[in-house]
Specification:
alpha+beta, 15 strands, 2 domains, 6-stranded mixed beta sheet, Chloramphenicol Acetyltransferase, globular
């Protein structure tokens, strides 16, 4: 792979970045020590570096191109040095018998701080950090990938190359889009292009109708950005979520969205804040990636907008409201409606992204209050250097005007929740994570009093 043009949406993410709003995805992967003990931290660091260096996508950096005007392309970095990207950080100070809890608290705090720092734009835009504590104890790997490099699904494909099971059979597939030497005529796809532009016009009109200019939202979610980041995690029992889903119909994702709504309500109550004048709105990204698409494709996204029913005091009614709203979104499809803002971005020319970024940065605040995204992970057990993977906590970036992003990933019978927030707007983020556990417990407690399951869509698993 030598060159590849940035698709319009990738270019949008590249230009939307600022010092206070870095546009990288993240994941904190936590590993248990091998039994019997295998490689030490330095050996794991060397293994991590060698496997990252073997992933062709991670050798690419962004450079401007002459055509299309205002465009950019991925080029192989001829001076690539993996030591600029893979680092080791050590945590110390755990009391005897408290190593595991202290390590998780320290790794989470450190990961939040590292997520504040934008990636260096003159290098391939990614970083990995090996975070270790006491010898023979657990360790973590923090992965940062620029959103221009990949969406959540593609990021998993790229990042999975570090694991033992995938590295053993890793082989790059697909072809890149070469940088053109001159302009090309529209060709036989001109009619489809017109249809795409018509769809984009419809999305734009929906965005205008859906924009909210009144300040009736939750103050903590609409606070001015401080440029700081804080991370908190939660672990939800997948079997419990499936029991709730069977009673409510719909999907596990519907249940998770309702849990987020309930957790926000609990958190506001514990803070002593009044309920907002209107329910906070979530952007729920939807992947448009299909089997057979090129492995080198960048972002293929759309999304739904969903009002989280925070003001309703009844947990089951909240779940019913989420399920009904998501059913309406799915019936309309992911390529229309204001949530499909990525579809609109995909139709704009390169110059529009380059010079329109300052205006686009403020649009997110008018459309939604919080991002809630699900990231698919491999279902099989994974390891690094013989150390089994315990958990993966995904992390999403914060757009301008956003103070909270919620990312969800299922692994090992648990749904791992990564909460990324503005550190000054939500200094009590750990409390919000605890509220998610409490909301699941309350929904479970209400199961005996719930009426017989109603007909509904069957979840595809």
């Amino acid at each position: 792979m030598d060159t590849e043009l940035l698709a319009p949406l990738d270019l949008a993410f590249w230009h939307l970045e600022s010092a206070a709003h870095p546009m990288h995805l993240g994941a904190l992967a936590v590993f248990d020590p091998a039994t019997p003990p295998a490689a030490d931290a330095e050996a794991v660091l060397a293994l991590l570096g060698s496997r990252a260096a073997a992933i062709p996508r991670l050798r690419m950096r962004v450079r401007d191109v002459l055509l299309p005007v205002g465009g950019a392309a991925w080029f192989t970095d001829q001076d690539f040095d993996v030591r600029r990207h893979v680092h080791r950080l050590r945590l110390t100070g755990a009391a005897p018998g408290e190593e595991d809890g202290a390590f998780m608290a320290g790794a989470t705090r450190l990961a939040g701080e590292l997520m504040e720092r934008p990636l260096e734009r003159g290098l391939p835009p990614w970083q990995m950090y090996l975070i270790d504590g006491a010898p023979g104890g657990p360790f973590a790997v923090l992965v940062k990938l620029h959103h221009a490099l990949a969406d959540g699904m593609r990021a998993v494909t790229i990042g999975s190359g570090i694991f033992d099971e995938i590295a053993a059979g890793h082989a790059p597939v697909g072809r890149s889009r070469p940088v053109p030497s001159r302009s090309r005529p529209p060709g036989p796809l001109a009619l489809r292009r017109i249809e795409d532009l018509g769809r984009a016009f419809g999305v734009g009109a929906s965005m205008v109708r859906a924009s909210r200019l009144d300040p009736r939202g939750t103050p903590a979610l609409t606070a001015p950005s401080s440029g700081t980041r804080r991370l908190a995690t939660a672990d939800l029992d997948l079997d419990a979520l499936r029991r709730i889903r069977r009673a409510a119909c719909g999907t596990v994702n519907d249940v998770l969205l309702a849990v987020v709504a309930g957790a926000l309500r609990r958190w506001l109550g514990e803070r002593g804040e009044p309920l907002p004048g209107q329910d906070p709105r979530a952007l729920v990204p939807v992947s448009r990636r299909r089997p057979g698409r090129s492995a080198t494709s960048g972002n293929l996204l759309s999304g739904y907008l969903l009002d989280l029913p925070v003001r309703d005091p009844d947990p089951w009614r909240r779940l019913d409201a989420v399920r009904a709203a998501m059913d309406r979104n799915k019936a309309a499809g992911p390529l229309r409606g204001a949530g499909a803002v990525a579809v609109l971005a995909d139709q704009l020319p390169s110059l529009a992204h380059r010079f329109g970024a300052p205006f686009a940065q403020g649009a997110a605040r008018m459309l939604f209050d919080v991002l809630v995204t699900s990231v698919p992970l491999p279902r099989s057990a994974l390891s690094l250097g013989g150390c089994p993977l315990r958990a993966v906590y995904p992390m999403a970036p914060l757009a301008r005007g956003q103070a909270l992003a919620v990312a969800l990933a299922t692994y090992g019978g648990r749904v791992r929740v990564g909460l990324v927030a503005d550190g000054e707007a939500l200094p009590d983020l750990e409390r919000l994570a605890r509220c998610a556990d409490e909301e699941v417990a309350e929904l479970l407690a209400l199961l005996p009093s719930v009426a017989a399951p109603r007909p509904g869509p069957v979840e595809q698993s």
